[in-house]
Design goal:
Order of helices and strands: HHHHHEEHEHEHHEHHHEE
Oligomer: single chain
Strand content: 5-15%
Largest sheet: 5 strands, mixed
Structural class: alpha/beta
């Protein structure tokens, strides 16, 4: 398991799609590459949002890089970026993604490696491996919660001081069945909803490996929920996996795909690893939904219920005796 950045890797949001990007001379400044109009938009958005932030955690989370991501996602339309960011602030207060623990998603961790974080690509972006053939659960709410849990951990591993803010995905469709595609299509639309609305400008690249011919049917179901910018970052990898080596060093790429990284996912060893590396936040790090900066002393509900993209209630998983590893 690799959790350290390659020593020579530094990149920023305006360089993230260029492997030959120059190394910034010092700490990353999100304002450095903005035009006067964009700087004005950034300052205006901050003036509107900062009074709404109720806790130290929210104020730290809403960094200038974060403001810039929402502005870029809405083409620097301040009104649209404001509406989008307000929606995320309310969602985070309700869903509490930063507070999710391994215990909350234990059923999704208890498998042979259907989705996990391991290493970084050549641009310093955390690698998330997704292997649908190893999926062993059917509860959509639990699955979505695990995706959000992993997103938060991957983002925590980023070095924002070097301008790193994007993630790279390897989606391995080997042994991907038509039935699996049907089962995953609804979940995928939910995941896309969360990614696009609450984690904008986080996707660096999604590399799809061993995609079968009927994947095109699956993609047609999902793609209407995906914006054009996101679609452009979805890459189909030829069966020889050579394209992966253009994005990932041999030391970081897993042996299954032709690299030298011998990592093997193990539930027993991996269960609490992410929480140890990046501890969850306490439930009171954000106020209850509907609060504002003027009510920073408001207490937040300790319930971990959440709202799915369809508006249904996502109840927390019950904790019990640790389950045996499912093979």
């Amino acid at each position: 398991f690799r959790d350290t950045h390659p020593p020579s890797v530094e990149c920023g949001p305006y360089m993230a799609d260029s492997s030959s990007a120059p190394t910034p001379p010092g700490p990353f400044d999100p304002r450095a590459n903005l035009t006067p109009n964009q700087l004005e938009a950034l300052d205006t958005l901050k003036e509107r949002i900062q009074p709404l932030l109720a806790t130290d955690y929210e104020r730290k989370w809403c960094s200038e890089m974060n403001y810039c991501r929402y502005l870029r996602a809405r083409d620097y339309d301040v009104d649209k970026a404001e509406a989008m960011l307000k929606g995320t602030i309310e969602w985070r207060r309700d869903y509490k993604p930063m507070c999710i623990t391994a215990d909350d998603v234990e059923t999704e961790l208890n498998n042979t490696g259907k989705m996990y974080r391991n290493g970084f690509d050549l641009q310093g972006r955390p690698l998330i491996y997704m292997k649908p053939r190893k999926d062993n659960t059917t509860e959509k709410v639990s699955k979505l919660r695990y995706v959000v849990y992993l997103l938060e951990k991957a983002i925590a591993s980023l070095d924002e001081g070097k301008g790193q803010e994007k993630l790279a995905w390897i989606i391995d469709f080997s042994s991907f069945s038509q039935l699996t595609g049907i089962q995953q299509s609804r979940l995928s639309s939910d995941v896309m909803h969360v990614l696009q609305n609450h984690y904008p400008e986080r996707l660096g690249v999604a590399m799809c490996c061993q995609a079968p011919w009927y994947f095109s049917v699956f993609w047609k179901i999902v793609s209407p929920f995906v914006n054009d910018v996101t679609k452009s970052k979805v890459v189909m990898v030829p069966h020889d996996n050579a394209l992966l080596k253009e994005h990932i060093s041999m030391e970081e790429l897993e042996t299954e795909y032709g690299g030298n990284n011998t990592f093997q996912y193990s539930y027993e060893e991996h269960f609490r690893r992410e929480d140890v590396l990046y501890p969850p936040q306490p439930l009171d790090c954000v106020p209850a939904p509907g609060s504002s900066g003027e009510s920073s002393s408001s207490s937040t509900s300790t319930s971990s219920s959440s709202t799915t993209p369809e508006g249904g209630e996502a109840q927390p998983e019950k904790k019990g005796k640790k389950k045996k590893n499912k093979k």
